[in-house]
Each structure stands twice: as structure tokens, then as C-alpha cells.
Amino acid sequence: MFPEPDLPARTDLTITGLTVVTMDPHLGDLVDATVTVESGVITAVTTGPSGDPDAVDGSGLIALPGFVDTHWHLWNSLLRGTVGDAPGRDYFSVKRGLGPHHDIEDFYWAARFALAEAVTAGITTVHNWDHNVRSPEDADVNVQAQLDAGIRGRFSYGPRDSTPSGEQMDLADLRAFLDRWPAGCTDGLLDFGVALRGPYRTPADVYRPEWTTARALGMPITMHCDRCLREAGCRSCGLTRLADEGLLGPDVQIVHAVHASPDDITALAETGTRVSLSPITELRTMGFPLVSELMAAGVPVSLSTDTLAMPTAPDVLTTLRAVEAVETARCGAGEVTPRRLLEMATIAGARDLGLDGVTGSITPGKRADLLLLDGSAANLLPTGDLAEALVRQGRATDIVTVMVDGRVLLENGRLVQASAQAAIDEADARRDALVARARAAGAWE
């Protein structure tokens, strides 16, 4: 059913001769630098010779902190290739049609498939936003998949897909879930949150107990605000209502907020509420992400993939390049600089998930979540400002090594885990079996 554990051991190493984009405001960008990793921790970031005879020569390589993805529906990754432009093949129709026919293995392997692609894209932290928890086992295999993949992040427990608006999510199992996964059992890789529907999708007797329970359990809350009031013809996400009800705050992440009004944005800024943007899916299905407006207001903004089911891919640098181009066209040069965009994909994402003391920058004392890119790649040369080069010319294929928590998961551009490669190799067959089950049940044509 599931693979034998094959997570590699942590590697202690010293790498010299690196160009390092630390994303640490005190360290900045470093040339001819040495990074030392011991027992999964970055123990030193220095310049000049290391004096370690066993040091690895990193000349020609650029080191970055691992990218942080703050909203990703891992469970529906096997739907890639079924979503398209034909009638009845839009994302929401496909999700509603095939979502109920996922079995336990589908949930596990869908997550492993997405996480394998995440590694090849340099994403070392993923917020697994699960809005199709149909049973306790569904939630548990999602957690196990992320632990087996060795990817840092958060699992947010949500209701099953298409739950009626008047029906609460399974709050009893939410509590039991925390008992099944007590503090310390994830080796520091994962914490847990709650994915809620909120006031515009559920009545007060549903959303208030859900919000209250999440806060009583100390679980951070995440909520979509995508097309909330667009159908009514007004440009607003209605976030001022959430503020008035005391539902916003630093423990809340709002996803998309594409139709946020100036008052909505003010409410987000004043309450310290975070926003996760998914630029590619937003541009395809919702409208322009309000990157400039949110940044200018001081709203904490992070980056996400959203889903593999839509025509998209988690190529972070390409996504950032698209964001800069769109924002320049919309608003002119201003808030959205290459450096700010790299922050959005690294330290700001870590801050969104409460992990900025753990990851998001190459800082001594933080966990060793690192990328090494080929600085001699033609698309990165000639190199001027490093942030500008990476955002404006970089791509996922430049990444040669990925380390998470001191474990090398991508080496010389190849996945280290056999189970990760199996998740990719078997994705077509698993998707086809899922579609066949739905057809047999009369839910798919």
C-alpha cells in the first residue's frame, strides 16, 4: 500500500566558495562564502577559507534558503491532466466529480507526487491545505506522506469537499487528530492548522463554533477568500465583516483576497492577518492578485502554488518573474522589486507559517533547508544584482541540490528517494484508476 521508509540520513558538510543569498538582513548577499551544516542545523555562515580539509568546493554555485509554499491542495494533485477548457472540465467540476472517489492510497500518493515536484522546484516547506478530509484516515495519510517525503510545513485539516454549508466539519475528529499526532511526533517538521470556510460560505451556527474550536485548540486558521462577493457584482472580500466579528488576527491566513477592497486591505493590515497569494491560478480564474496594494499597506504576503490540478507548475522563480511583470504593467515600478519577491517566497512565507525562527533564511542556528543553483547556467549570466538575476532569469532547472532539515533530497538534479521517483512514475496509472472508479459509479463521463 505504502512504500518502505527511505528518507535519507542527515548529512554533515561544509561547502566553500559559494555565492550566498542569505535573505538575512544582517548577513546580506555573500561572495566566496562557506556554509556549515551539522545535525540538520546551519552552524556557520562565513566568508573566506574554511580550514576544513573535508569541505566540499561549491565554486560556481548559488545558495538560497529553501522556498516556502503557504497554500497547496496536495490531495487533488492526481487531477492534473483532467482539468481543461472543455465544458465540464473546469477545475471545480472535476474536483467535485472525482473528489469523492479518492481512496486512502490516492490521498497518500497524490501528496507524494506533489511533494516530489516541490523538491525539484526547490520548495522545502509546504502548507498542505486539505479541503477534502473525509475520514480520520484521510488526514493521517496526508501527514504520513509529508513526513515520508521529509518536507517541512503545516497540515491544515478541513471539511470534506462540497460539504453542505449548514454542516459543520468533524470537530470531534479534529480534537482526536491532535491526540493521534501529539507534540514532538513529527520530528519538528510539521505543525497543524485548520482550513475553514468562513462567514460567506457557512451560517453563524457553523462558522462560529469552528472558529472558536480552532482557537481553543491553539490551531492557526486558514480561509479562502477568492470569489466571495464577486457574484453580487461588488469588489470586496467582505473582510471588514470578519474584522468586526473578531475573526481576523495574526493566527489567520487569508488565501487569494483578489477582490479585496481598500477597507478590506486596511482590516488585514490593522489585525496582522496574513495573505497567501497564488498568482498563476488567480490570474487564470479570479483576476489580478493585489500584490502591490497588499505590500504597500504592510499586509504580510506570501507565495503559493494552490494546486497541480489546474494548468500550473510550482516553478517559483518563473512565477515571481510573472508577478513582477504583471505588477509593473498594473502599477509601475514600486513595491514589487525582485528582492521583495524573493522575500515573499522565503522568509515572508516562513513568517506566515510561524517558522521564521526555523527556516526562510540562511542564518546560523536555523534548520538546514537549502538550495544550490548552478550559477554558471547561461540564463543567469552575466550576473549583476543577484536578486534581479534570479527573479528575472532564473528557473527551476537551475537547481542542482535541495536539502531539507539537513537531508539531501535532490542531488545533481535527481531525486534521492526511490519512493519520490515512484510517485512521479506511477502518477498516470493512479489518475487513470481514479477516473475509472468514478466512471463505474456514474460520476464521470
From TrEMBL:
Question: What Gene3D superfamilies has UniProt attached to this entry?
Answer: Metal-dependent hydrolases (3.20.20.140), Urease, subunit C, domain 1 (2.30.40.10)
Q: What molecular function terms (GO) are annotated for this protein?
A: hydrolase activity, acting on carbon-nitrogen (but not peptide) bonds
The Amidohydrolase-related domain covers: 62-408
InterPro entries (UniProt xref) = Amidohydro-rel, Metal-dep_hydrolase_composite, Metal_Hydrolase, MTA/SAH_deaminase
Q: Known SUPFAM superfamilies for this protein?
A: Composite domain of metallo-dependent hydrolases, Metallo-dependent hydrolases
Name recorded for this polypeptide: Amidohydrolase-related domain-containing protein
Organism, by scientific name, is Kibdelosporangium phytohabitans
